[in-house]
Fold this protein.
Amino acid sequence: MTTNIEKLEDKYLVTLKGELDTAAAAEVENVLQPLYNSDGKDVVIDCSELEYIASSGLRILIGILKGAKASGSKVVLKNMNEEIKSIFKLTGFIYIFEVE
Amino acid sequence: MCFLMKKTLILLSNGQFCALQQIIMMKVKGIFLRLSKWRGLLLFLLAVLLLEVLSVAQYFFTHNLLEEELEKHAELELTMKAIIMKQLIDDSEHTLKSHIMEVKNNLAYPDSMFNIVKQIAKYSPNLKGCGIAFNPGYYKDKGKLFEPYALKTDSGIQCLQVAGDRFDYTKAGFYRGIQEKKANSWVGPYDDVYLEERLISYAVPIYEFTGDTVAVFGVDIDTHNLGDTLNYRHMYPSSFDFLLTADGELIAGPIDPNLQKEVAELVRLINDSTVTRMKSKSGRSTMIDFEINGRDGLVFYTFMKTQPRWQIAVVCYDDEVYASLVRLQVRLLLFSLVAFTILLFMILRYWMGEKKLNRQTLEQERTNGELRIASNIQQELLPVNEPSLRRIGDVRVEGRLIPAKAVGGDLYNAFVRDEKLFFCIGDVSGKGIPSALIMAIIQALFRNMASREDNPAQIMKSLNEAACRNNRLNIFVTLFIGVLDLPTGHLHYCNAGHELPILIDPSSLCSGAGASAIRHSKIDAKPNLPVGIMDDFDYEMQTLTMKPGSTIFLYTDGLTEARNADRKLMGREKVLQMITAVGTADPKQLVEKCIAQWREYIGETEQSDDMTLLAVSFTPSEEKEILDRLLTLHNDTAEVDQLGVFVKQVGESLSIDKALTGKIRLAVEEAVVNVMEYAYPKGSKGEVSIRAVSNGKRLKFVITDSGIPFNPTKVAAANTMLSVEERPVGGLGILLVRELMDSINYERIDGKNVLTLRKNYKNQ
């Protein structure tokens, strides 16, 4: 599982690769922790290479979304595969995130 | 659940349709009610009209009758008066005639004439006087005019020689008339100048032997007296009679001076040929209707049959003639008034009664309609088409509730959640609507509480607390709750004063002892206390293990206390015999045959109580396992990546597609992480074993740990409709497990938490 944050001028670009299971969640959370306190920039998360996500992973995304919402910025999830999307649908996350 | 609600909604809308129909019916009935009101009024008016017509007809009938009677009466009166007159006439004529010879014989002695007239006047009570008017100069020495006259006065008979300067009888009508006619005749009436009386006279000429008339001999009748005689009696109080000459001149009438005008008017009417008159029916008299001084009357008159042809008239006034009729009418009116009042009263009473009856009927119909709806809703509360029962093959459930009335207080329920069959049977004390309401509440509460609680004693406790709350009617419920764990066959149950269920062991059925004889035993269940009596009662859970193929048979006292035509109770023993006789453990057959026997037992007798049967058969499918792998992890989430690999390998071994394997992996991971986090307190070490088993169609993961009892199925799943701010952190894991797997089952076995997840991977 690799996690990468790229700070652009107007947004953060997050790239998630591999399987975000419970074991990986702690490490990913460490990396993404800064985004919990938004500085007003939008967060774009590229999921094109995300193969799996467990509820612990979903919780991290919720943390980021809560921070962004507090500062009025957005969290956009891009390029999710169908399996991940179905999990988003099951949990209702599809309604609270911006999914492209 | 949703399915059930939908059905209920449809049912309710059906019910509303029924209600609408009923409202229309009520409206129609209302119109009928109003119509019948009009009908009642019409009836009353008709009765009034009829009686009025009758009364009028009766009036005319009676009037005519009275008229006829009057005619007869009046003619009788006329005849009678004519007889009196005739008598008077005959008397007078006879008196006079009998003295003619005496006068003739004594013509030579003028003074003897006084004696003759005196005798006549004295002995004839009807005569006023009697006189003989001689031809002028007949007696030289008696002067030119000589008329010896005897006058009846109050002081006696007075003899007079009336002729003289004051009275020249030769000019008087009677004298001249008789002289000219030379025959007997009635003369008058005329006003006698000398006597100053109105008289009527009968006179005869007196002949000499030579054949010449020498005198006129006459008797005088005082018309005043004649009138009095004529009116000696009356038909009616103000009736009177009067006498006319043939020419219509009044001879005599009533002496009352007040009546003179009337008499004169009546005489005028009789003589006036233009006045309408009628012949009486008998033709013997003539009638004239008159109105004098505002009083209607009828005058009857007729000519006397003998000479002189005088006319006699009798007068009757309508008010007197028809007085009896008026009295009759008044009585009739009073009578009909009373009759109408009674009729009106009766009609009013009828209306009121009918109205009340109608109201009652409508009320009854509405209640019946509502009862039907309630009955349907109640049946709908029963798990007849429970989808969760149809999905699971490990258990077969058959239940039947036959209420004694439209709605009842019996209940049963059964559904499967998390590989557990939750079932209950109960009987609310009392009958009818109150019991039915409690039944519905208990059904809903059971469903609700069993949806998150596996322990039947806990479910019972919650139900008991709810039932004790505000239980002012002191309604209690006997209830048996069972929770059958399908993977193990463990039956956890809790009894609250209900009839003990019967466990039917099928082994005897197969073991040659005879197909019809099966072994059964009553379940050993503590009675505890019925629900709704003591809110803090501690209900105890008991457990037994059901053998595959065994059936638990539950019933309410509607079965054991069914009465036959002899009022004899069926009783427990008979029920046991019945089950033996039925000879099957198949729930459907068992229930149907029991009902048939029950019906046979009660026969024509009215069902006195609700009757409910519930049979639950444990029929686990025997599976051949094609895969059985085990993974043991520590309670460390960092080891979860091993689980991912394990599940993927299992998926590959069973050729499950990757996407489905991913879903299964997620569910298992969430379940395992849950156990790691909650079963072991922080810091304590423990193990979690994950066993994967497959029969080629279904994949089963059994997750076992030795931690504190923890049932993840009781954790409420997250609400997926909440916004990000509202979302609680927990609940997401169990939500994913429930959504991704076909079933989840928790069971605490031998001090271990055993969680089983299942997924059919074929035909996905």
Observations:
- Chain A has one domain: 2-99.
- The first strand of chain A starts at residue 2 and ends at 7.
